[in-house]
Amino acid sequence: MKKITLFILVFSTTAALAFLSCARELTGKEDIIALYRDNIDVFADASSGGNFSAVERLRGVESVYISDDGAVEIMCGGNKIGPGTHYYGIFYDADLDAADLTDADAYEESGDGYVFRERDGDNVRYIEPLGDGYFYFEEHY
């Protein structure tokens, strides 16, 4: 009986922690765009000063990656398991002009944004301009 009680306790604690960690993730497009719009001043300060620590502290932001060329990926959530991997978030690139995407034949217009589909695979990336160098993104692998 003690083993069953211990198993139930461990299982319920693990399930509760998993639920709480997932509850903080944002995977809905509208929620992520609202995160940007509701905190537009925080995002503007970050890109103008190059310091994204205030963005990283926003509820719904899991992590921030800054590349050597200055592009920034702000992860908000996703499913990171095997071939059904999905990522959602916001990225910043001051040098990226949305009009250049279709000129390069890499992306095609789709809704309010642009989609890239891997030719001989199933990888898909959708991006949507938010303004001032920021873009909503989702990636599916």
Would you give an account of this structure?
The protein is of the alpha+beta class and 141 residues long. The chain contains 5 helices and 7 strands, in the order ααααβββαββββ. A 7-stranded antiparallel beta sheet has the order 1-2-3-7-6-5-4. Strand 4 (108-110) and strand 5 (113-117) form a beta hairpin. Mean pLDDT is 83; it is low at 5-23.
In total, the number of domains comes to 1
Uncertain segments are 5-23
Describe the global form: globular
User: Which structural class do the helices and strands define?
Assistant: alpha+beta
Question: Main β-sheet, in a few words?
Answer: 7 strands, antiparallel
Summed up, the helix count is 5
Main β-sheet, spatial strand arrangement:
1-2-3-7-6-5-4
Overall number of strands: 7
**Which percent band covers the strand fraction?**
25-35%
Q: What is the element string, with H for helices and E for strands?
A: HHHHEEEHEEEE
Between the first and last Cα atoms, what is the distance in angstroms?
44 Å
Radius of gyration: 18 Å
The quaternary structure here is single chain
Question: What do the pLDDT scores average to?
Answer: 83
